[in-house]
Amino acid sequence: MNTELTLGPCLFNWSEADWRDFYFRMADESDFDIIYLGEAVCSKRLPFRNNVLPDILERMESAGKTVIISTLALVTTKPERKVLRDQCEQEMWTVEANDLTALAFLKDRKFVIGPYVNIYNEATIHSLAARGAERFVLPPEIPAETIAQLIKAAPEPKYEMQVFGRLPLALSARCYHARLHNLHKDSCRFVCDQDPDGRDVNSLAGQPFLAINGIQTMSYGSQLLLEELPALADAGVSAFRLSPHTGDMLGVARLFRAVMKEEMDAGEARAKIGELMPGHSFINGYSHGAPGMAQIEEALAL
Amino acid sequence: MSNGTVRSFPPFVARVTRFLPLLPLERLISEVANRVASQHPEFFDRLDDYASKSFVIVPTDLDWVASLTFHNEKVQLHLARSLDSFPNRDVTVTAPFFTLVSLLDGEEDGDALFFSRDLTIEGDTEAVLALRNALDDAEIDFIHECSAIAGPLSRPLEAGGKKAIGLLKASPFMRARQQENAEPSMDGMPGAYPT
Amino acid sequence: MTQKAMELVCPAGTPAALRTAVDAGADTIYCGFRDQTNARNFPGLNFSRKEMQQGIEYAGKNGAKVLVAVNTFAQAGNTDLWYKAIDDVAASDAHAIILADIGLLDYAASKHPDLRVHLSVQAAAANADMINYYASEFGAKRVVLPRVLTVQEIAAINREISCETEVFIFGGLCVMAEGRCSLSSYCTGKSPNINGVCSPPGSVKYEDHGTHLESTLEGITINQYPKGEAAAYPTLCKGRFESLGETGYVFEDPVSLNAAQILPQLQEAGVTALKIEGRQRGKAYMAQVVKSFRKAVDAVAKGQSFDLDALLAPLTEGQKSTKGSYQKTWR
Questions:
Q1: Residue of C nearest to A98 (CA)
Q2: What phi and psi, each to the nearest 5 degrees, are found at residue B13?
Q3: ipTM score assigned to the predicted complex
Q4: CB C165 within 8 A of CB C271
């Protein structure tokens, strides 16, 4: 498979030290084709990221890594708009736009459209490509069959999709972590740092269902697409994204790379990833056109 | 609008209706329904594929149940004493008689009743919503339509009927069942559908 | 001092509901075609092309305007259905079209430059930079603001933009940023953006367990109601869940939005139009809502003091409502 392996931005509120150490390790030891870096979920976490971001960028640079700056997915306040403008107007790194507000600041720039922007059809692709988008990270809910249709109708840009990790499902002005701790968002005490992989939400009947991560709602299940990779690559998906979790991400990346190089069987990789990430319950429903929470065993035919 | 009170016939009404002959009643209601339907051809467009479903209506305070189908732009009504008579039903709607009537003529906001326990639905929820929306658009005046059958007597019958029903609904004769929950937080839902 | 009254924008799911809303005093009615081009694609709802034209005529005769919502995202390989909808609105006497999809906005701007475009709430334009971008790039004349903003933020936005703003004042409340939520498809496979439905009725089941009634969506328990407690529709984000031993409404209580109390502030904030949610609600209910808000909005414009509570009592009786994000503590 002639496809890239990328590392999406860390979506969780890891401590400054954990965040830095994780990306130092990725700079030194990983072989990702692209590493996305930056806070996409909550503007209140930005100061902590910015404290260590220069060191990480330097380390990435000396390791020869390609870095793309991920930006906020929900932009409302003045400080958020200012941050976004600054991120878009720097000229060192390409930007992943996770909110269309970024378009206002990215005139005459090439950029990546992140998974939080509504990309559902070729008309939208053409419209955004004409404005500088050259790579599209597809929203999680699009079925592989639609992805194939989309790429067939608009084959020029690069397409990337998340193949590992909890899926981002929704954003809100309200912080659910704060709500569960009986706090307001403005005085949240950064309680989301207590759940470095998100906080599980179960139904009253005990069914594991969702996860919360500050203002973000995520899937309980962790996306794992392995058997599907060849069909997706054939359909024109050119990059596969892993979304950071605690645990051995380098190990997970190695297994994905082995499958993409056809050196390892998907089933074997699945079993090994299950051992590396014992807390994860894997899902693949969306790509099969099923509810996202489903795990479909049949092969993906496109 | 609903004032949060659902009224039911007292049990003796059910005992009385047990002796009503179903066949003439069936004919009467069928005639009314088809009269209305012929004036509202768009009703069937709105029902669309759900016109092939079979709807069973259960008035909880009466002693009969009704099955409704809408095949080929014709309303078919069958009455029976028991649900067992309609084993192939797609959906069953259960509520006190007047709740069902007010749903029919759009006087009540169905949503409030729909998902509270005053009205229960088993089976194909989509079909019920299609029917409800089609009825809401058709602007059916139940008493007016029933009275129309009476020919020259229709006007006084309609006026009298409406008055009687108004009185009946308000009378202590009807058994009111107040919403039992003191804390009506669930009622604040936007209705049948989310945004 | 008398100001121009804010425009009252009301929903209609059927032609009868449209006539009802016009008669009840709506300035503007919004509705959609009967297919997946609109975000209330529910069984038995919405308008055929002919019904739409008749509705526009009825509204026109009574001094009201019609907005047509084509506010879902076009499906790859099937964009013609959406293009056709836009073409049909352009050819009609509708006052404006409501769009969300960038590709469709582009299409409307290039094919029908004279067609007035409103930006749907599904486009989630939540700040002045983005709104100005949509206005300059696609000629949007009005933006429906997402329900994530405070009144102060709305006022600030209005100072920075040149196009009109419309805000929701009553009805269902999305807790999530609109147009950016996949909870429904995660559970049921159908989403607002793709299918025009959220928590679709076909996936809903109610089961009586004796001690409690349980509502489920595609087999996932969304709520359990103890005996005597009224049940609600199992909208995903308004369900009861459990997290680390805490049980309750994790995302939002099953409340609806009611911004009646802050109408004067909204007028002060420079809002052009007020939107009532609920194309799926019955027409009898809607007539009450529209009549009440008509009186309230006119009174606010005249600077009259009035008892909003009394005016809106019939609507809020027995209901739990919230001012939502308009007050900052909601967050």
A1: C180
A2: -65, -40
A3: 0.96
A4: yes
